[in-house]
Write a structure and sequence with these properties.
The chain is of the alpha/beta class and about 750 residues long. It contains 27 helices and 28 strands. A 7-stranded mixed beta sheet has the order 6-5-18-17-16-7-8, with helices on one face. It has a 6-stranded mixed barrel with strand order 23-27-24-26-25-28. A 4-stranded antiparallel beta sheet has the order 1-2-3-4. It binds ligand MGD (2 copies) and molybdenum atom.
Amino acid sequence: MSEDKKYIVEENDVIKVRTCAWSPPGDHPIGCGLFLHVKDGKVVKVEGDPDHPVTNGRLCPRCLALTEVMYHPDRLLSPMIRDRADRGKDKWQAVSWDEAYDLIESKVRGFWDEFGSQSIVTLTGTGRESTLYAPVYASSVLNTPNATTCLSGLACYGPRCTIADYHLGAGYPELDYAAYFPDRYDDPRYEVPKYLLIWGKDPIYANADGLFGHAVVDLMKRGSELIIVDPRVTWLATRAAFHIQLRPGTDVAVGLGMINVIISEGLYDKDFVEKWCYGFDELAECAAEYPPERVAEIAWIDKDVLIAASRAFAQGKPSSALWGLAIDQMKAGVQAGHCFLAIVAICGYLDIPGGVTLAMPSSFMGKWRYQAMKNVPDEIRALRIVDPDGKYAAFNSGGAMPGVLPDSLLDWLENENAPYKMKMSWWIGTNPLACMAAQPQRWYQALNTLEFTVAQDIFMTPSIMALADVVLPLATFAEHDGIVMPHFGRNTHFLGAMNKAVDSDTKSDLEILIDMGKRLRPELWPYESVSEFFTEQLHTTYDWGFEELKDEVVHQQHYEYRKYETGKLRGDGEPGFQTPTGLVELKSTIYPMFGEGALPYYEEPEYSLFTLPADVVEKNPLVFTTGGRNLTMFHSEHRQIPSLRAVNPWPRVTIHPDTAAEYGIEEGDWVCIESEIPQGKCVQKASLRKTLDPRVIHMEHGWWFPEQDGEAPHLYGAFVSNPNNLVPHESIGKTGYGAPYKNGICTIRKVDSLLG
Ligand SMILES: Nc1nc2c(c(=O)[nH]1)N[C@H]1C(S)=C(S)[C@@H](COP(=O)(O)OP(=O)(O)OC[C@H]3O[C@@H](n4cnc5c(=O)[nH]c(N)nc54)[C@H](O)[C@@H]3O)O[C@H]1N2
Ligand SMILES: Nc1nc2c(c(=O)[nH]1)N[C@H]1C(S)=C(S)[C@@H](COP(=O)(O)OP(=O)(O)OC[C@H]3O[C@@H](n4cnc5c(=O)[nH]c(N)nc54)[C@H](O)[C@@H]3O)O[C@H]1N2
Ligand SMILES: [Mo]
């Protein structure tokens, strides 16, 4: 590397490469700033970058363990192929990149010719770097409209973004933590929020989608108080002014209760509502049916906390709010999100200093990804997999993340009479059997019907062992060039350069995309390098290119408040919001077109102690939630990383000590968690904590055991501790969005071992 590169500092025999992190290894696009210390062509140390304007040198343990990931003996370093007949067996054969590419190309061309390109589906996972490119594998290489994930109800981010589009016409509303400003909290334009309403989100541990969670701590130090809506006593909840410790899945009732207090006590922002909101009176009428007493009974909460928290939030001006995954992971996700946005809007906190930021219209990469869909000809796009009854018209009409509804793909694969046969899948950043898939055994069978599957990853996973025929070795962020975009363009406060620090024989998702694009649709892939590709993208918005970004490392974006007043939220440049009414839609004009209510309504979760027959409830008397994040694991990743696994050696089910005693369970016992409907079970280790209501338990997700037998049927134990064995399919919202990964019912019993 040459000395004129500003992102490189040489110190004695060590080169320090200034860069931003993304995935792999697992992470969301926070773009944490760091220096990779390189010696003799290897990364030897990771150090935080104090000059990164957002993360200021702070890093999580996963990033600090980077070298353990990169140089792990099990790391995939060569492409591998295996006979279809050997799926589930460890009979991989190492091949060169060209041999692997030749095989993939000939298979794809074969399926195109014989079955049509729609017979190929791409599957991706959460917002790793791969999610930027996964839809483009489908549209611009494989020529298929079928791109999706295995997550029922697309129950992550998709619901929130789509709801935000419908109600506000604006990307992803985010906590204003001055991330757009070089002087951050001291910028004269900024104001510290009085309260942070943190709803179904645990930002300290999750750092989700672009939010640097530790900013919440920064703001607490500057005086922000917290209102937490969460069934668990989290670290933040212990420091909160108000904790609404609700029963999992009752968020809509709580939301309507807060709206009720804010409106009935006249605490809303009358000026904002008058000028910028549609349907206020109807929302007020609907919330009037949810007085705090009723909500307290439904949600197992204290009505006085609900009332006091609602008052504090509405009166403490400005305040901000954060919505998390729990909103998506319930059947009523659309209604829960609707309530959340309505609370923020009627208090007047949208797009004001210290409130909630709404994205500046930005084109970088976003346009490219959406326009790429046009690379699939109309007649092939018309063949996209949809549900046969047209029930999920909202989803199929193309929400924030258009593609195939995962539940529809599962049905299609299981249906022998489906309109056409699926032949191939390409996985770009997912480990469905261990992590995403509800009823994972069903997905196992269904995906096994495919003739050919390609995956790329940094490690062997249970899903690849079970189902893939080709696996390509993926580069970590230290081994390739890239760009980090917090919130994927939906509220992107900066662009970060991922500067390659060391060489390897592995490739990034973008490199593989370009390589395969050149082979299969060369007319769409003229780029000679990743750098050339990024520069072309950057030139749609800026007068500088990728090499300049590499040197700058972090490029903060411009931001303006109150864009609804200046016409900057709408395509036509008029003041207002990009919705059919031009206003914040407290009453939706869109949902009724899809058979969904215009106003939020509360329904018990489908698997509820209060709606199922008495005999079922008697046998399944506990409510479960799942998937609260921790710092040492990103979904199913990191289980083979010694320093991280040592902190968190086994999957933990958290149980209140009184409940545990009733079931004869002690700290550290193996516990079988099982449900009758849907029928399923898993085993985790008891962690007894008074942090939950005694009627609620919490299970970790994403567990498998790299040290155990990888071959089928055990598959590294992917089904053993998997809470998704208890999560049904198609218990999804009327729009197709939202699924109950975080609310179900179950019972527990002590067992002797992990294997029950
Ligand atoms: N370290 C780490 N970070 C991650 C991930 C990871 O696996 N590990 N995963 C990433 C991904 S893909 C995502 S989507 C984000 C998710 O990150 P977040 O949006 O923060 O979501 P979770 O951490 O799943 O859960 C947030 C909180 O919701 C609470 N909760 C559970 N059930 C309910 C309920 O019914 N109602 C309410 N109001 N709250 C409930 C949980 O107790 C938990 O504290 O994290 C991302 N970041
Ligand atoms: N019960 C329950 N289940 C859940 C959740 C929950 O809260 N509760 N959370 C759900 C949520 S929100 C999500 S988003 C899903 C996540 O589910 P997935 O995204 O499928 O997560 P992983 O199982 O970790 O699989 C990701 C794989 O991609 C590899 N990888 C990492 N980075 C990259 C990259 O940049 N490119 C490529 N090609 N590969 C990469 C990793 O090594 C890993 O093997 O899980 C869901 N599952
Ligand atoms: Mo997610």
